[in-house]
Amino acid sequence: MNGEITDQxxxxxxxxxxxxxxxPRALNGVTHGMGSEHVPSDERTAYAAHVQAVRxxxxxxxxxxxxxxxxxxxxxxxxxxxxxxxxxxxxxxRREVAGQLAGGVNPFSLGTAAKQAHDALEMLGRLTGESLDxxxxxxxxxxxxxxxxxxxxxxxxxxxxxGGAEDCTEDQAFTLGEAMGAxxxxxxxxxxxxxxAMTGRxxxxxxxxxxxxxxxxxxPEEMPGLLALYRERLGEYSGRMLQGDAAxxxxxxxxxxxxxxxxxxxxxxALALAALPSEKELEKVTRYExxxxxxxxxxxxxxxxxxxxxxxxxxxxxxRGVLDERQE
Length: 328
Prior knowledge:
By secondary structure, the chain is mainly α. The chain has helices at about 5-15, 30, 45-60, 60-100, 110-130, 130-135, 140-160, 170-185, 190-200, 205-210, 225-235, 235-275, 280-310.
């Protein structure tokens, strides 16, 4: 060999000349190129196509311009990843809050917005008599309650206008009986007198007390007699009193719908707030986005300068700093 350097010995000498910890700039192709370590293996194929598209769109030619195009491509890719991260975080939090709103969670452990939605739903349950599970699984149940109040109001208005109670339904008998019974008790009509008017016979033991204690179940066939007693005792005020009862039923319907809107609004607010990151997280993401944008704009500026120099044109002026909200 006589000291002649073969390819093998030349390679070994070159390897020996490298520092133990190589200069990071020697790894630019791995760090920022199509084989970038910033890109997971499952994204490499799509990323390679992305880099080629950026190179083509930017008109990059030669090693330097392609390297600058690759840097811009990486910044764009990472910016897209930030957007996907924010979307994933938002979706995860919204699913968590949606699960809380669906029940099965201690309301005292809920966030403010979700707790307000829970409290509004509890109020709706008190107004409608429906369980929270029913209201969650059947949103129409609350509206059905409002419609029932409106139907009761319409029936009471019909009776107040002089209508008869001969063909009333069981639900109408309950509504009319409760309204007239409360008024008659208020003007000191005994339960026994009401039983006699409803049944046409002398009250049995305990029946008068049942009416007075609001334990009586009003039947449709009892309403004509009770209505006759009601009009006899109230006289000209009977219609006004029933109109007042009808107005209360309409107020109940309005209140149910008002709380329905409160529930829907509170639930929407809870989901909307869940879509926003915390203040600390938002600051971190914003600063990261600002950093990537600075990298992107610098790479594009330098790429433009390199193209102009190659074409013999005057290079663009130096890029003024791209600042974030902290002027950094």
